[in-house]
Structure formats: structure tokens, C-alpha cells
């Protein structure tokens, strides 16, 4: 049969009316054991902040497991939600409080999948966050190792302070983030 | 040793989704990536996804399914029921999945600091709602028919009346944000967002159907709109792995 999929449309400029969640950016409560904060700015092709966007994250738990029945290893049963959502603010900033995901055991380095939605994006964008303290695993990761180094670097968060990572997303132009087709 | 990779999700047919770079919609100019996306085979992180029913009992408020009851009085406008099913492209229902909606009021105005056109605000209408699909993938909410509104994209540009929809499905790859339109809108022809969908047949799938059977006598008209998310590949495969 043909796939009669519903087409994508932009979230438009007023997405905050529908997509705002209080505490959506807290994948785990602030101050939880092992909690890290990932902060960044969403930037357009002119380097200007995007104030009408939303960044969503999806990831395994610290043991590399998903509490989801389609994980062939079985749902973890941990109750770990794994999902974060943060609207960008007037300066294009977003932040997610989470734990570092564990390796999945399939040869991929620890990573977080990211969805980016904004006015002006007719489809959502997908990217990934990798971790700066995983040099060895990152070097062996099938996606990262397939990219030219100057592009791969856009997917690796930068260490800021203790427990603080920085991950900017550049939609277009110099230093453009690698976006993925999944 | 071999490691089984889970079956991935079929890519959408060509022409279903709009291109990111679409000059007719001016806001794409500085936001569409200039480089082609890198194909990432679906692995565990992509075939799983947020199941927002668990651990989010406070996500959906008591009047989130009825946008006409969120304030002290009745909103102005035509009361409507919008309902349908969420399916995957194999025709399977997607149960227990979150459907988020937002829309303008009957005047075509959003209660948002950046919406300052001369349509009237309605103190009894905010325009945001949330529902979960039931075990058959069905959803339903009550609202007001949104108005069309002008925007600055080009001379005399008007958005056709629409309701924004956000869906998760059960996998990261099924995420969909889209807009539902109303039948026979005379504004379709001049709207670059509607027309950004390359396949004219796919475009029609964003338009709801008036359903007299589903109207509530002396209360509300009804529009049906089914939403189809990506379906899954049939065969899991294995590949060599250290």
C-alpha cells in the first residue's frame, strides 16, 4: 500500500500557546544525582537568535535503557521518561536538565536525539548531542566517524562548568549543525 | 557476535513533506539548513520515543479537551467538534498518544505578544488544548472555528483558517507537527504554507471533512480529520558487530 502520511507544516510563530510545558525542560528534577544541564542557543543563518523555537530531547537512561516496549531488550520498567522540551527565550536560549545517557551496547557512542521546531521550518529538524568526555566512543561511533571532523564537531557538546554542557544549534551557514534524516 | 537492530520506520514518500528551503515562505530564507541532512539508520533511540501517558498525569488538565470551557464565559464564534483517528501508514491505530493543538480565535487572533493585528482578542478563548488518543487511536476535542488572518509574508497574504497539531506516535521517528484546514477554504490558492507540500494529493490530506452525523444538535458542528504517521519496516535485520 502507499503511505498516505499526513504532511508536515510549520509550528508558526505562536507555538508557545500549544507547546509550553511547565518544567518540560526537566528530564530529571534539578539537583538529582548525576544531573547535568545542557544549555545552548538556537541561531539562524545570520547568527541571530531564534526566539520562536522549541528544542526537544529523547534519550536512554544512565544505563543505556529505554522504558519503552519497542526496545528489543524489553522495557526497563524504570519509569525514566527520557523526554525534555524547552521553548527558546527572547535570546534564543534553551536548557535541558537530564542525566548523561549510557551506551546502548550497539557500537554507538552515548547520545541524545534532538528535535528542533521553529517558525520558518516547514519540517522539524533532527540532530544529536554527543558528549565531550567520550573521545574513544565518539571516534568509533558510526555517525560521527562518517562525518568530516569540522562537521562532526557540531554534534559534540562542549564542557562548560562541572555538570554543565553547552550545545548551540546553528540552523544555517558557518558552523551549521549537522542535521539528520531518520 | 551479531546484534539485532530493530526494524526502522519507512521514509515518507517523496512529495509528502514540504522542502525546508521554500522561497514562497519567506521565513525559510535564514532558517532552512543549507546542507543536505545526513541519513541516520533507525536504531534504538529512533524506534523508541516518549510515551507521555506514564509519569505525566498532570500534563492534561480537566478542560484541555474543551477549549470553550477554559474561561468564565462562552467564547465568541462557531462551536465545533474536531475528531478523528491517529493511525500509522499500515492503518494501525496509535493508542494513548498525546495530541496537542493550538489555534487563533474566531477573529483570527492569537493571545500572543507578537500577534498585534486588529482582530479582537476574546477573554474567553486562549486556544490551546491537549488530549490523548483512546485504545482505538481516536481523539476528539471541542473548540471554536478559528478565523483567517493576514500576515506579512507577501502583499495581501492571509492564512487560511487552521488548527496546529503536534503528535508523537510511539517512536522518535513518528514525530509530526502539522496544521489542519477546513473544507473549501478560498484562501488555499494564495497560501505558501499550505502549498509548500509538493504532492497535491498529500496537500488534500491536511483538509478536514465536515461530518453532519457527528454534529451535536443544538450545540456544535463537527469536522473529522484522521492523521497518519509513518509505519514500520516489516523485517528486522542483523548486521555484523564486534
Q: Can you tell me about this structure?
A:
- The complex is a heterodimer of chains A (182) and B (242).
- With 182 residues, chain A is mainly beta.
- Helices cover 8% and strands 27% of the residues of chain A.
- In chain A, the strands form 2 sheets. In chain A, strands 1, 4, 7, 8 and 9 form a 5-stranded mixed β-sheet that branches. In chain A, strands 3-2-5-6 form a 4-stranded antiparallel β-sheet, with no helix packed on it.
- In chain A, a hairpin with a 4-residue loop joins strand 7 (158-159) and strand 8.
- The mean pLDDT of chain A is 96.
- By secondary structure, chain B is mainly beta.
- Chain B is built from 3 helices and 14 strands.
- In chain B, strands 3, 6, 11, 12 and 13 form a 5-stranded mixed β-sheet that branches. In chain B, strands 5-4-9-10 form a 4-stranded antiparallel β-sheet, with no helix packed on it.
- Chain B is globular.
- The model of chain B has no long low-confidence stretch (mean pLDDT 93).
Notable characteristics:
heterodimer, A: 182 residues, mainly beta, 4-stranded antiparallel beta sheet, 3 helices, 27% strand, globular, B: 242 residues, Protocatechuate 3,4-dioxygenase subunit beta (chain B), oxidoreductase (chain B)
Amino acid at each position: 500500500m502507499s503511505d498516505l502520511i499526513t504532511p508536515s507544516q510549520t509550528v508558526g510563530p505562536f507555538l508557545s500557546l500549544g507547546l509550553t510545558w511547565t518544567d518540560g525542560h526537566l528530564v530529571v528534577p534539578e539537583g538529582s544525582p548525576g544531573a547535568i544541564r545542557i544549555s545552548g542557543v538556537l541561531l539562524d543563518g545570520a547568527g541571530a537568535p531564534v526566539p520562536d523555537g522549541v528544542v526537544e530531547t529523547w534519550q536512554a537512561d544512565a544505563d543505556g535503557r529505554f522504558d519503552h516496549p519497542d526496545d528489543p531488550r524489553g522495557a526497563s520498567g524504570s519509569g525514566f521518561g527520557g523526554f525534555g522540551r524547552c521553548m527558546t527565550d527572547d535570546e534564543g536560549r534553551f536548557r535541558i536538565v537530564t542525566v548523561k545517557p549510557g551506551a546502548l551496547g550497539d557500537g554507538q557512542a552515548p547520545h541524545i536525539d534532538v528535535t528542533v521546531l521553529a517558525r520558518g521550518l516547514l519540517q522539524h529538524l533532527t540532530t544529536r548531542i554527543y558528549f565531550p568526555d567520550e573521545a574513544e566512543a565518539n571516534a568509533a561511533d558510526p555517525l560521527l566517524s562518517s562525518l568530516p571532523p569540522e562537521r562532526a564537531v557540531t554534534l559534540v557538546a562542549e564542557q562548560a562548568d562541572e555538570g554543565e554542557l553547552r550545545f548551540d544549534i546553528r540552523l544555517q551557514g558557518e558552523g551549521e549543525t549537522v542535521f539528520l534524516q531518520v | 557476535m551479531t546484534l539485532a537492530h530493530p526494524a526502522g520506520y519507512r521514509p515518507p514518500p517523496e512529495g509528502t513533506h514540504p522542502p525546508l528551503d521554500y522561497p514562497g515562505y519567506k521565513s525559510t530564507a535564514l532558517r532552512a539548513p543549507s546542507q543536505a541532512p545526513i541519513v541516520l539508520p533507525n536504531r534504538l533511540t529512533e524506534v523508541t520515543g516518549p510515551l507521555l501517558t506514564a509519569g505525566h498525569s498532570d500534563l492534561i488538565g480537566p478542560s484541555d479537551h474543551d477549549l470553550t470551557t477554559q474561561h468564565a464565559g462562552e467564547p465568541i464564534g462557531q462551536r465545533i467538534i474536531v475528531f478523528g483517528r491517529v493511525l500509522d501508514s499500515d492503518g494501525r491505530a496509535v493508542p494513548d498518544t498525546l495530541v496537542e493543538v493550538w489555534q487563533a480565535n474566531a477573529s483570527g487572533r492569537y493571545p500572543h505578544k507578537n500577534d498585534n493585528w486588529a482582530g479582537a482578542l476574546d477573554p474567553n478563548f486562549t486556544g490551546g488544548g491537549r488530549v490523548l488518543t483512546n485504545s482505538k487511536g481516536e481523539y476528539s476535542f471541542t473548540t471554536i472555528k478559528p478565523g483567517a488572518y493576514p500576515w506579512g509574508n507577501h502583499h495581501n497574504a492571509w492564512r487560511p483558517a487552521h488548527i496546529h497539531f503536534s503528535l508523537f506516535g510511539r517512536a522518535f521517528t513518528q514525530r509530526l507537527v502539522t496544521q489542519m484546514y477546513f473544507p473549501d477554504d478560498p484562501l488555499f490558492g494564495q497560501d505558501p504554507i499550505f502549498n509548500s507540500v509538493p504532492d497535491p494529493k498529500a496537500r488534500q490530506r491536511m483538509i478536514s471533512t465536515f461530518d453532519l452525523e457527528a454534529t451535536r444538535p443544538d450545540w456544535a458542528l463537527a469536522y473529522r480529520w484522521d492523521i497518519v504517521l509513518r509505519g514500520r519496516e516489516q523485517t528486522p535485520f542483523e548486521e555484523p558487530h564486534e
